[in-house]
Task: structure prediction
Amino acid sequence: MYKAARGTTDILPEEQAHWRYVEKAIAEITRLYGYQRIDTPVFEDTGLFSRSVGEGTDIVEKEMYTFEDKGKNSVTLRPEGTAPVCRAYLEHGMQNLPQPVKLYYQAPIFRYERPQAGRLREHHQFGCEAIGDADPAVDAEVIDMAWRFYKSLGLTRLSLQLNSIGCRECRPAYLILLKEYYTGQVEKLCDDCKTRLVKNPLRLLDCKQPGCQAIADAAPASADHLCPPCGEHFASLKRNLGLLGIPFILNKRLVRGLDYYTRTVFEFQPEEEGGQSSIGAGGRYDNLIEELGGKPTPAIGFGIGIERVILNLKRQGISIPVLPPLQILIASMGDAARDVAIKLAADLRQSGVSAVTAAGGKSLKAQLRQANALGARFTVIIGEDEVKAGTVTLRDMSGASQETIPIKELAARLRPTD
Result:
């Protein structure tokens, strides 16, 4: 028997209330902050990701779903959301719009990694990108948007981790210091970090191996080696977060796993779990648009894993509104009643009332059991007497009370009032 591929899952009907709850919050928070939705293709030219994410990153080297199509083109299932949005920004001339251009997306993300709670090989991400403005106030607004999103869901016990990793001007000197420090520790490093020391030394700080974490704790901090513009930018960001009332923790080991980040980087972490289970993260990427062929364009954004948000909603016991139940099941007895039931169901739906007809050929008792199984608020019963009289029997399934009413009055009686 076939099963879902490892690292993927079916989102069953009983899970949908959580997804609709999160999606409603996404729609509201993006409206409040003036973001417009964009949907990009599920696969892109492989070069888009290898160039933007970085050749030395785990994503490019180990985790991308890359294949050759029938036209001999190398394509990759989307492993992250920012690069495709930036490609669309350039391709469709959005640089000519008033800046910053504010875009958001909800999309499946694909990474070949060990499946874990809240992070599957196919998972879903809510992301926002503000492209075209270098003001640290935009950084603060983006972080505030993510923070308010979590609060709107009822999530608590989250910490905001914050750092600055500098820019093209100050980072090279910092990387020299970092490599000098790690060269003296090379025998204690894991095999991956020995490779990172050569290819991508900034990623040394992000290793999850306990031994390497202890070494990283004593490493030079990027925020202590910023050029004056980066230092001013970071100071202004921290001041703006204070104005917005958003607490943060300075985390010198926070670098993020993508090469395109500059200056601001941040993560939201459940306080009881720490960095292994970030439920959202982002940062500034002022060079990415230029690297993809555009003019120098500052930008910042974030990505939030929807599965991890839902996992934390459950862990924190957040009450989720139930989805509207089925209002009507129409039970019928006899061919004539069945014809009336089919027409009545269509009329009710057109009036905004959810309705289904019971499976044909069953006894009334069986049809009532079906109504209970479906959670129907009412059962409409139609038999020969009702057909002749032009009426229906309306049965309240919560109290088993019932009444007879004219069939023409049923829709008005049940139509939603809001």
User: Anything to note?
Assistant: The first strand starts at residue 36 and ends at 37. Residues 85 and 252 are 29 Å apart (CA to CA).
